[in-house]
Amino acid sequence: MNAIIISIGDELLIGNTLNTNSFWLGNELTQLGINIHAHWTIPDTKEAIKSNIKSAQEIAQIILITGGLGPTNDDLTVEAIAEYYNEPLVFHESVWNNIQQMYAIRNRPAHEGSKKMAYLPQSAIVIPNSMGTAPGSIYLSEKNIIVSMPGVPYEMKAMMQKTVIPTIKEKFELPSIQHSYIYTAGVGETILSDALKEFEKELPAHFSLAYLPSVGKVRLRITGQGKDALQLKNELNTLTNNAVKCIQNHVYSLTEPSIETVIGQILREKNLQLGTAESCTGGNISHLITQIPGASDYFKGCVVSYSNEVKMSILKVKSETLSQYGAVSENTVQEMLAGAIKYLNTDIAIAVSGVAGPGGGSAEKPVGCVYIGVADKQNQMIKRMQFTNNRDINIELSSVQALVLLKSFLETYYQAEFLRVG
């Protein structure tokens, strides 16, 4: 069962408006078990609208069109559909009454130009607009359903939920489609792919695995499709557990996309207090941590020790350490950790110092060289990382890797269990 989503509007093509409709529709149709064949964004011309409808009908059973239904001269979708079907436009008194009522609610008179929206092709099934003025319309054939809806997101969503989705369910026998997610951090998709090579070879034909990378993280999605929803769910659970066993060290959750949320839950369970001492990340790690509601239960604060002066005066990093080893060094991070634990009075601290760039690098410590440490009063882990030449990416990668190292530290010294698999 294929679907094509067609978004109409020059403002979408040139980037003046973000196409959130396409994103939302894709997700809704996928949840119904419908395969999204393509998203097309096209200009406000009759020729483009007609030619794309024709092409879409040759490929997809479901065609959803958004945009071009308003009262202005560049709103041409209705006229284009009428020409495509070689049908006259028919005036709908009920639609015109709704338009007038909407204007009355807004204390505005319905101008004569708005009558344009009450004319629809003869075969159109009207979709009432409970949130606005322009109606939607449905066109049914033996093989296809074509739906035209407004581009205004909340108007389109209301039509989908009240009318379009029930119509699709009535017309088509839809399969069950289910997803599971595996959230990983601190490792690239290439390494994950290598580790999952045999797993992918053994995937049943009705399942697929997708890699969805972002900075410092990769989200894996396993998707299954079939007629028996319960059987599919059981298969999906088994496959998810098998995949996790291949990459267990890199996984932090099966349900929560945010690693900082998962770490916060562990810190709260273990009754541990955390603080950070940040140089090159400039407080970004503490920003990530404090985005989580209730972070004050386990996070005490941050020292942004961007200068050597602050490293020495607040964190008590020795001047000899800085002069001998430099601010970007394992020795400096080691002393930053001890200083943060003492100054912030925490159980555990994170410390980071590096060359974010674009300048400041050397042959020994090039741009992207970062030392990351986690420690308590008895134990410590410090790693040297080499990232990119991009300052923003380096800050983000350093922050994620710091949280990944904290995860390892909690697993090693506090028996923390981030994930349980059967």
Descriptive overview:
With 422 residues, this protein is an alpha/beta fold. The chain has three domains: 2-171, Molybdenum Cofactor Biosythetic Enzyme, Chain A (3-Layer(aba) Sandwich), CATH 3.40.980.10; 176-253, Alpha-Beta Plaits (2-Layer Sandwich), CATH 3.30.70.2860; 259-413, CinA-like (Maf protein, Alpha-Beta Complex), CATH 3.90.950.20. Helices cover 40% and strands 24% of the residues. The chain has 15 helices and 17 strands. The chain has helices spanning 10-13, 20-31, 46-57, 77-85, 93-105, 153-171, 189-195, 197-201, 229-246, 259-270, 284-290, 308-313, 319-325, 330-344, 391-413, and strands spanning 2-8, 35-42, 62-66, 89-91, 119-121, 125-127, 136-140, 145-149, 176-185, 207-214, 217-226, 251-253, 274-278, 299-304, 348-354, 369-375, 380-386. A hairpin with a 4-residue loop joins strand 7 and strand 8. It is elongated and about 85 Å long.
Note the topology.
Blueprint: E1 2-8, H1 10-13, H2 20-31, E2 35-42, H3 46-57, E3 62-66, H4 77-85, E4 89-91, H5 93-105, E5 119-121, E6 125-127, E7 136-140, E8 145-149, H6 153-171, E9 176-185, H7 189-195, H8 197-201, E10 207-214, E11 217-226, H9 229-246, E12 251-253, H10 259-270, E13 274-278, H11 284-290, E14 299-304, H12 308-313, H13 319-325, H14 330-344, E15 348-354, E16 369-375, E17 380-386, H15 391-413
